[in-house]
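Posting here for the record, re: NAP.
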Amino acid sequence: MKIAILGGTGDIGEGLALRLASDTPHRIAIGSRDAEKAENKAEEYTTELDSRGLDAAVTGGENAAVAADARVVVLAVPPYHVGDTVEAIAGSLAAGDVLVSPATGMKRDEDGFHYHKPGAGSVTRIVAEAAPEGVAVVGAFHNLAAARLANLDADLGIDTLVIGDDDDAKTTVTDIAEGIDGLRALDAGGLANAPEIESLTPLLINVAQNNDGMHDLGVQFK
Ligand SMILES: NC(=O)c1ccc[n+]([C@@H]2O[C@H](COP(=O)([O-])OP(=O)(O)OC[C@H]3O[C@@H](n4cnc5c(N)ncnc54)[C@H](OP(=O)(O)O)[C@@H]3O)[C@@H](O)[C@H]2O)c1
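Prediction output follows.
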């Protein structure tokens, strides 16, 4: 399957691209607003994989171009730009495609990070409202730390929560997530449950910042 990671030039995009390319048979394409930036990043990721003896080419291109031939499109862009990013690529999406949202809105003050719930109810809901007819939206990867993913020497041993209202799309994303070594995907229900998942991310950062030796935390449900 071809998976496009829009904003794959950034932190979580890099982590997801490296893990998916190294652990799964899927073809990974990096998207950017700037085609050349995406091509350069894709080359960088391919070199990193190659240095580990992994024969997995990552390609790159402008967001709409990589979305056009992907079945699954991950929106690894800032939370306040998920809506305009979906609108910008809407013409490249076809019925049956799946949009994946890992985004969470946060604010920071002197006490730490706080969940910033958007008026729509969640960032995942903003994506659902912007998605063209027939394109399912699934929330996943919200609570993964980019640096931990991008360090291919790090064992994961963590969970990701998957939400969505379309069961087939949710199964597709669950299978993709579980293809990553050490990552377990758990069904957390429908899109209405997005705020609970999105709000876990600032909690993880606050715990990491207040406890010596803790960084790049994830969650594991037992
Ligand atoms: N970092 C993490 O550990 C982590 C973990 C879980 C979830 N997330 C979520 O994943 C998303 C991306 O996080 P990140 O840390 O990877 O962010 P980031 O590195 O700051 O940005 C990712 C990419 O978004 C693109 N971008 C920037 N401004 C944009 C705009 N106005 N419109 C469209 N695209 C824009 C950029 O790509 P181009 O300039 O190449 O277009 C950039 O490389 C966020 O919504 C975040 O909540 C992050």
